[in-house]
Amino acid sequence: MVKAAAPGVDWREDRRRSAREAIVAAAWALVEQDGLAGLSLRDLAQRAGITTPTVYAYFDSKNAIYDAMFGQAAEQFLAHMSAVEVTGNARSDLVAELSQFAEFCISNVARYQLLFQRTIPGFAPSADSYGHAVAALDRVQVRLAALGFTDPRLLDLWTAMGTGLVDQQISNDPGGDRWLRLIEDAVDMFLAHFPPEPPPKRKRAKR
Amino acid sequence: MVKAAAPGVDWREDRRRSAREAIVAAAWALVEQDGLAGLSLRDLAQRAGITTPTVYAYFDSKNAIYDAMFGQAAEQFLAHMSAVEVTGNARSDLVAELSQFAEFCISNVARYQLLFQRTIPGFAPSADSYGHAVAALDRVQVRLAALGFTDPRLLDLWTAMGTGLVDQQISNDPGGDRWLRLIEDAVDMFLAHFPPEPPPKRKRAKR
DNA sequence: GTCTATAGCTGGATAGAC
DNA sequence: GTCTATCCAGCTATAGAC
Known about the structure:
Two copies of one chain form a homodimer.
Chain A: H1 11-34, H2 41-48, H3 52-58, H4 62-82, H5 90-106, H6 109-116, H7 127-146, H8 152-172, H9 183-193
Chain A binds a DNA duplex through helix 3.
């Protein structure tokens, strides 16, 4: 209504944007059902209530759709991981972090595959979409650093543990919790061997 | 030559068997190049020096080819993992085990995907092929048990660590060694938190 | 922007001669 | 068993009317 004349972002752009989002939403619904690689533009158009050529009015190619999905997934990942509460206690924070990560991955396997595995043959995310993903991973690093883990090798070991648990869970016990139950054990193991550096000097009041 | 009349395994069967193996070999060459899902029967036939219908003289369907590949991969996995030397020292044995596993996975990513990830839409290994894979995984369990690790949760954590390192290596640093270098750290972490049970009582003569 | 219609291609799988 | 020829389904993508 009062959306008046913001330069370049008028109702026209809004319409187009929401139409694009509707297509992407339909794409998510399909890949969650038929698998990431099984997406076809025919099905997509039908699901979105339009025809195939209309899809091309909004996306240049099928990969452009994957790219939009990738960007959205990265945003969702950032939001999901930012929602975890920080207490300052290393153990509970690491458990929360890992649980949140696992929940994100498992709640949408297709999204996990798109974002973290490279399973679509000709697809590589655009620089723009990839930027979101990098930002999300940076955040993980920052949070771990706040807990006293700064050694890059430690960070790599941490991500390996996380993806390993998630990967085994998805591949070998889908729908179950055989590996999810091990999250606390994994964190304890990690903490026992790599005690966090002493309090990261919470000296940031001044500024 | 002296292969005479072994009942049911005459030269006819041998010819057929070697023809099948040639097709499977061509399939491996193709998937290593174009990705596991990118395999097409046209390309396969061309690579094998035959025509598409001839492929069907040896395999009922494309999935039957994947199945033969799966069985072969499982056999190779068992052989590769059996080649690692056992010293009885937990640390060096675990490092060797994990290194061997990583080497196997990384040396042929398509094989890794076929065997350990479920990435081909309509494909599930036959009971026969799957049996080989189960045997191979059993062997891992037995070897860990010999080192004093019998808790099934421990085994799951161990496999998660292994696949996590391999997965990160393949996905995020293909051709490099960023995660491979962490194998020793990972083993130390594992050992520090879960010291193996005292010598597995090599007293099993009786029985 | 949205449609109908279709091009153009590639896929797995089969028929039938030899 | 191996071929030529082909079917039929699916796909991405485009042309052109409205």
